[in-house]
Amino acid sequence: MTDSAPPLASGPLGMRLLAFDRVPEDTRFDDGVPVGYSLVALWRAGLLLLVHVRGRDCWELPGGGLDPDETPRQAAARELAEESGQHVAPRRLRFAGFALTSLPGRGVLRGAVYRAETDAAEPFAPTAEISGVHWWDGAGPLPHGRLQTVDARLAELVGR
């Protein structure tokens, strides 16, 4: 992507979605941009799971950084459970592609994006990081805070 190309989406906190690559999960990139995080678009009865991140006052897809010696798939399952209380085995996550994002103060990173479906919502207990979860219809208002529009665009790209 060139600097003059418009992003696929821009977020309220300065995040930009530069590209979304539908390539195999085991793709090795030689552009120097690391795979630094994983996200999960979890669907239940046509609704998308979002988590409210306290420090950003923002509704986002569950996800986060990779721990040492952890695969993006393992990180996705772990982050989903830690942030939302929803448990999906890593093997049940369907790889959707890699997001190329620009983050203020962090430069350009690549994120592995997964999707999954569940039949039932598991209980959620607020944490120091996550104040709530919401099953969103993609159009209606959120209980409070703002929407991370980059994550909403990624959810559209990976589909239900």
TrEMBL record:
InterPro entries, sorted: Nudix_hydrolase, NUDIX_hydrolase-like_dom_sf, NUDIX_hydrolase_CS, NUDIX_hydrolase_dom
Hydrolase among keywords: yes
Protein name per its UniProtKB record: NUDIX domain-containing protein
Record-linked Pfam families: NUDIX (PF00293)
Keyword set, alphabetical order: Hydrolase
Residues covered by the Nudix hydrolase domain: 30-160
Requisite cofactors: Mg(2+)
